[in-house]
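Hey, can you fold this one?
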Amino acid sequence: MSKSTKVIVALGATGVILAAGSAFTASSTIDDGAINVGSVAQSVSGATITNVVHTYTAATDTTTAISARAAQLLSMTAGVVTISINDGAAQACTVTQVDTTSPADGTLDASDIACNITDVANVTSVRFVVNG
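Sure. Predicted structure:
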């Protein structure tokens, strides 16, 4: 293979890697240019998690809580939904069943998830576990 062909192949491979990486980039909704936060909707067997929101304290550079919505009715039994931050220990979340139709029709059709976590600086990964 000639030197110019190797350069073209290397540049092409780099482009593919960059394009693939950008496909997974999330955008930040926090109004602070120095903070990079994102979220993604994720479907797993039995649950679709959306609307992930980080409660952030700028003064201490920590995330203090995380909330989300599941498109399904999840059990409100303690421990059914847990969260792991930065691959740490699982922490319990609270589930509330809600009516998301507008206007409200009184039918519970989704679940709000509230996780008051141990304060964590530099959150790099969030894992919800639904078990039940």
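The longest helix spans residues 3-22. Let me know if you want another pass with a different chain boundary.
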